[in-house]
Design a protein that fits this description.
There is one protein chain. The chain is an alpha/beta fold. About 35% of the residues lie in helices and about 20% in strands. The protein has helices spanning about 15-30, 45-50, 65-70, 130-140, 155-160, 170-175, 210-215, 225-240, 285-300, 300-315; strands at about 5-10, 35-40, 80, 95-100, 105-110, 125, 145, 165-170, 185, 200-205, 245-255, 255-265, 270-280. A five-stranded mixed sheet has the order 2-1-3-10-4, sandwiched between helices. Strand 11 and strand 12 (about 255-265) form a beta hairpin. Helix 8 (about 225-240) packs parallel to helix 9 (about 285-300).
């Protein structure tokens, strides 16, 4: 903590990132004897390259790297992230100390007319910055014109309302957190439109060995979110993927079982490799489940599919 005993939270300055940081702050503040809390705004490479499609940008951790390095440097005490933005390999010296309960993991379609995806007119212009969303949109609506869409959530909705797009796809959790759920035209089914790994989960990172900070984070960690995302992130790590791979996955608790489904889709939507696995809902088994499902995907040809997509993007943009 800072010299005056204040707990400093590192966060991006977007409306959604600030909502997430304030939620973490409120949960810490609700504990007996909690310290004073300060939010520290940090700009990331993803913020600075707001006009560049993420699939054209080399590397990973576009929205987390600078915050995590500020954490390592002692400039902040914890870092709050959308877990889906956080690489499966953390910066050395950091730990994923807490995961908040998962919000709705689904993607949501927001259309100018209020129409669902199947009811959009032929050749509808749909905006998204995600390769995963592009791939599954191409699979479900091969006639659609897929356009690049960057910016924070309110900005994306404003661009839709100005008529730049017929529809856009956003995470349902982000819309709900910002009080914008009334704009949702359709929640997209995880069966046909699987979400990003860890979508809907807020992650909190701290420095290894920082017991003074860790004591305030123990109560924040939610068992169900930890189980599900351990499986999903192990799957992603085994595939050596990232936000630039058209992979969707979702783990759910059903009784005493953890069920993980995943799908890798070609960017043009013409080919999809799916896999499913289940195991006991215990922490020691979750990562193994993710690895088994990843191996099933690779056995079904997902590795070749992903490599072809990487090679195609190196020559020609989607």
């Amino acid at each position: 903590m800072s010299g005056n005993g204040t707990l400093r939270i590192g966060t991006r300055a977007s409306a959604l990132a600030l909502w997430q940081a304030r939620e973490v702050a409120a949960r810490i503040a609700a504990q007996a004897g909690a310290p004073a809390i300060e939010l520290v705004h940090i700009r990331t490479s993803g913020d600075l390259q707001s006009e560049v499609p993420l699939w054209q940008t080399r590397g990973r951790a576009f929205f987390t790297r600078e915050i995590d390095r500020a954490l390592l440097a002692g400039e902040v005490d914890i870092a709050v992230h959308s877990l889906k933005d956080l690489p499966t390999e953390l910066e050395a010296g950091l730990t994923l100390a807490a995961l908040l309960p998962r919000a709705d993991p689904r993607d949501a379609l927001v259309s100018g007319s209020g129409a669902a995806l199947a009811q959009l007119p032929p050749g509808a212009r749909i905006g998204t910055s995600s390769l995963r969303r592009r791939a599954f949109l191409a699979r479900l609506r091969p006639d659609a014109v897929l356009l690049e869409l960057r910016g924070n959530v309110p900005t994306r909705i404003e661009r839709l309302q100005r008529g730049e797009y017929d529809a856009i796809v956003l995470a349902a959790a982000g819309l709900t957190r910002l009080g914008l759920a009334q704009h949702v035209s359709e929640h997209l089914s995880p069966e046909s439109f699987p979400p990003a790994v860890s979508q809907g989960v807020i992650g909190v990172c701290a420095r290894n060995g920082d017991a003074q900070t860790a004591r305030w984070l123990v109560e924040l960690d939610e068992h169900g979110a930890r189980l599900a995302t351990s499986a999903e992130r192990a799957l992603l790590k085994h595939l050596e993927g990232g936000c630039q791979v058209p992979l969707g996955a979702l783990a759910t608790l059903q009784g005493n079982n953890l069920i993980l489904t995943a799908c890798v889709c070609a960017l043009d939507g013409t080919r999809c490799v799916s896999a499913r696995g289940e195991g006991p809902a215990v922490a020691a088994e979750a990562e193994g489940l993710g690895i088994r499902v990843a191996q099933e995907l690779l056995g079904g040809g997902a590795g070749d599919l992903m490599e072809k997509e990487r090679m195609a993007r190196a020559v020609e943009p989607p």
